[in-house]
Amino acid sequence: MSVVVQNSRGWVLDARSLIDQGCERCVRYKDNYKSHVKCCFKKQCFQILQSHYSVNASAVLENGNEGVVQKTVKPSKKRKRKHSELNNGEIDLQVSHEKIRSVIMEGTKSLVDSAQSLGYLNGVIDTVKGPVPAEECRLAALCEMAKELPLVDNEEQEESVQSLVAADGSTSHVDLFSRVTENKGDSAAVATLMGEDYVIPRHTAFLLSDFTQMQPLVYYGKKYDLIVMDPPWENKSVKRSRRYSFLPSSQLKRLPIPLLASSNCLVVTWVTNRPSHLRFVRDELYPHWGVDFVAEWFWVKVTTSGQFVFPLDSPHKKPYEVLVLGRYRSSTDSSLSSSETSKLPVPEDQRLLFIPLTLFMGTPHCAEVLKSYIGAEAKCLELFARNLQPGWTSWGNEVLKFQHTNYFTVTPADDPADKEDTHAHTSNSAKEQSLS
C-alpha cells in the first residue's frame, strides 16, 4: 500500500512504494533471452533531508560519521529587489497564498503528526550512499525528430497498437512514436528500446509522442474514467532554466479530452501556483472540454522529517501545488437520471493534501486515493506523463523518462514458476507421506 495515513485532512503517500508495487515481478528481455529480475526504485531519489531553496540534480548523498549530508550547489547571486517592487502577478500570488495558507499549515501538521506516530516522516533511517541519477533525457528531442514520420491515418486504426514483446521475445520491432505500445503481461518487463533499457510495468500501455502526434492514442479506441494531466506550464523559471519545453495555455484546448473521456470521467489537472493558470483551468479550459469544476486539492511536498521542502511563505517557490478536479459531461448526459450523473461525487469542501518524498519526479500518482470516486475497475489515463503506472495508459514526449534502469536497482531473481513447482512438489510429497 502506498497510502501511509488517511484522515479527514487527506493522505500521506509513500511514492517509492507505489512505484515498486508495479515491478515486484519483472522479466528482462535481452538478445531474445528471458531472465527474471527484481527492480526497485533507488532510495536516494527520495532522501530529501532538509528544506531547500534550490536543488542540484546531481546532488550526492554521503553517509559519513555525522550522518547523511546532502551537498547542493549554492544558488547564484542575483540582484535583490526591494520588497515594494512586486508586479501584478506577484501581488496576485500573494493574495491567493494568504487565502489558503492556514489550510496548508493546519492540514499538513495533522497529517505529519499522524505519520510520525506510525514511525514515518521521522527522518531517514535506512540511508543509501550514491549519486542521484542524472536527469538527462533525449526522448523529447527524439519525439521532435519523429514528427517527420508518416502519421497513422483513419484506415490504419487497427495498426495503431502493438505488443511490447514479440512472440520470439524480441523488442526490436517496437515503433514507439506512432503506435500505442502495450505490456499485457502479469509481470513488469525490462526491455531494450532505442538502445536503452527501460522498466515497463505490468498491464501498461503508452505512447511516446509530441503534442501534435496524439492520433494513435485516439485511434486506440478506449474511453477513460480518470484522466490526470500535469501540463508543462509556461513560467519565467522554466524559460530561464530551459529544463523542459513549455506549452502555451491556449494550446491545451487542443487536447482531445471529449474523445478520450467516458461519461462522468473525473479529470484532474495539476496546476502551478500562478493564479492566472488556476483561473484559466476553471473558467476556460474545463468549460471548453465540457468539464464541470468540482474541487481543488493540494499536493504538499515535505522532507523525510515532515518539513516543507521550501519555506511556506517563500515569494517564489511554494511547497505545494494545486489539483483542479472536474467531471466530464458528454452530450448524452442530459438523458441520465440525477442519481446516475452524481455517482461517486468528489467532495468540494474537503481539504486534501498529498505528501510524497521527492522534488524532481513531478506529481505523485493518485489512483489509490481517487478510487473512491472513480470505481475499482476504472480505466485510467495520464497525459504529459514522465513515468508509467501498472494498469494505466500514459502519453507524453518523456513518458519513459523515469522508467530508465538508471533509476532502478536491478538484481537477479528466481523464476516464480520454479517456486510454484517446488511448492507443488513439497505438497505432493507431504500427501504421499501422510497416505503411507
TrEMBL record:
> What GO CC annotations are associated with the protein?
cytosol; nucleus
The entry assigns this protein to a family as follows: Belongs to the MT-A70-like family.
Pfam families per the UniProt record, alphabetical = MT-A70 (PF05063)
**Name the record gives this protein:** Methyltransferase-like protein 4
Cite the PROSITE patterns for this sequence.
MT_A70, N6_MTASE
Q: Where is the composition biased (Polar residues)?
A: 425-436
Taxonomic superkingdom? Eukaryota
Keyword Transferase set for record: yes
Q: Which organism is it from?
A: Channa argus
Which intervals of the chain are annotated as region Disordered?
A: 412-436
Which SUPFAM superfamilies does the UniProt record give?
S-adenosyl-L-methionine-dependent methyltransferases
User: Which keywords does this chain's UniProt record carry?
Assistant: Methyltransferase, Transferase
Taxonomy of the source species: Eukaryota, Metazoa, Chordata, Craniata, Vertebrata
In terms of InterPro entries, this protein maps to:
DNA_methylase_N6_adenine_CS, MT-A70-like, SAM-dependent_MTases_sf
GO MF, one annotated term:
site-specific DNA-methyltransferase (adenine-specific) activity
Give the UniProt record's GO annotations in the biological process aspect: methylation
